[in-house]
Amino acid sequence: MAPIVDLDPGLVSKYDLPRSDKQDYLFAKGMAQGMTGYEMAVKLRKQRLFAEVFARLPKGVEATVVEVGLGTFPNASYYFDGEVKSGPSSLDLVGVDPNDAMESYATANLAKARTSGSKLDANLRIVHGVAEALPLPSKSADAVICTLTLCSVVDPERAVAEVRRVLKPGAPFMFIEHVLSEDDPDLAQLQLRFNAMQIAMADGCHLDRKTLDVIEKAGFSSVSAERFSLPGFGLISSQVAGIAVA
Ligand SMILES: C[S@@+](CC[C@H](N)C(=O)[O-])C[C@H]1O[C@@H](n2cnc3c(N)ncnc32)[C@H](O)[C@@H]1O
């Protein structure tokens, strides 16, 4: 089990900004109830990426997997997916998120995922924290997962550098994120126009992030990624997904 480490409070407070309980509650509820269509749209892609992550996990021993921006844990089912052959003997899941109102939804999603019949032994620890200051030692994680979170962090470059820091050499970082469109100028213009409103309404979610550029410049040994469009998802329809290897 990877140790959770205490961080310099000055560093944490720089990125873990003051939050409103009411907004956290509403945002968690909104994420829990409003993302079904999105999750269906990315299901096959997530299955494929999780299979790649699992293929890279150590075999026959416990593996530590960190979800940065755990949220309501919509990814829970992929850890117990019958299609995903689990190499590790057990999973030490660490979910990091600054919104404590996500926890009950995440725990419920994990409980639901466990009923899928998979025998995989997995323990989830939910830790209050932020991507920019991950409460884990360097080179302690066998994988990091990040879905729809780098749009919301305060400092994407620092967040991705932290992901790389905590990964063991050769370990995968899996990501799916919405980004500023590169191939649809009309969409990009709309994303820029509504960016401030989105930040205010959706817990700091930016529509103008160039997340793949950030990941590609972060010093990973390899980055394999694709840009894709999700028809019907408007301002978040331009997405990137892939795996970077530390
Ligand atoms: C749009 S939600 C996505 C949650 C989940 N990963 C998913 O796929 O549904 C963004 C999440 O990032 C979290 N978040 C916001 N700022 C963060 C930060 N600086 N570091 C880590 N997580 C953050 C939010 O609390 C929220 O749970």
Automatic annotation (TrEMBL):
GO terms for molecular function: S-adenosylmethionine-dependent methyltransferase activity. InterPro entries: Methyltransf_11, SAM-dependent_MTases_sf, Thiol_S-MT. Signal peptide: none annotated. SUPFAM superfamilies: S-adenosyl-L-methionine-dependent methyltransferases. CDD domains: AdoMet_MTases (cd02440). Pfam families: Methyltransf_11. Residues 68-174 form the Methyltransferase type domain. This is Methyltransferase type 11 domain-containing protein. It comes from Micromonas commoda (strain RCC299 / NOUM17 / CCMP2709) (Picoplanktonic green alga).
